[in-house]
Design brief:
This protein has 252 residues and is an all-alpha fold. The chain has a single domain (48-212, 228-248), classed as MetI-like (MetI-like fold). Helices cover 69% and strands 0% of the residues. The longest helix is centred in the N-terminal third of the chain and has 32 residues, at 45-76. The chain is elongated.
Amino acid sequence: MVTLLPFIWSVYTSLKPTSEVFHVFTPLHKLNLGSYSYIIGQFPFGRWLFNSVLVGLIVTVGNLIVNTLAGYAFARLRFPLRGVIFYLFLGVMMVPGQVLLVPIYMLLANLGWINTYTGLTLPFLMSPFMIFLARQFFLGVPKDLEEAAIIDGVNYWGLFWRIFLPISRPLLAAEVILTFQSNWNSFQWPLLLANSQSMYTLPVGLNSFYGQYSAYWNSVMAGVILLTIPMIIVFLILQRQFIQGISTTGLK
């Protein structure tokens, strides 16, 4: 109830007319969708939604490819300095994100990637935490499966495609939800890298709306609900695999 009540109250407030926003109880016959139509009609909401979906999909697919292959390599392949490289990846997780703001921004500015889709996606196509999660999952796969496939003449690439990838659906579902959620709700980097309204993602666009029209709390809440709905849909579709992937990762 502690978790649900703020969300329910946000939905309730978003349906109120402006004159009823600060009333605790509003008659049901006065509730309407005016705030939603106002946001969609008066602001480039469609453009912000398109940017968020496009950036979220590119980053999620990129992370699926990079993190899964890297996790497989760290778990099953033997190559020089494997342990050192892996712990360097883990070490990156200990560096506060604020420390990297200036150097990453300067790098992207020198490359001319500010206010572009490339700048909003390319630097975020991998995640040290997801690589660690994938490695732990692949370490839990029985060694017998790998040895039997090698005896049958399957190489490491074939092992990944024919053995490890088909049984890693829970891992992939967990990666999709965590990565898409993180990118969908991301505010700091899109705010720094997007200089024009046409490049805003939903969190940045709704923040600018909130700053200008902070008195219209019903419209602010309507924007928050619209931002939340896609993430709820993704989780409902993948929740079964997501819970399985989190609960079984690292278990043998």
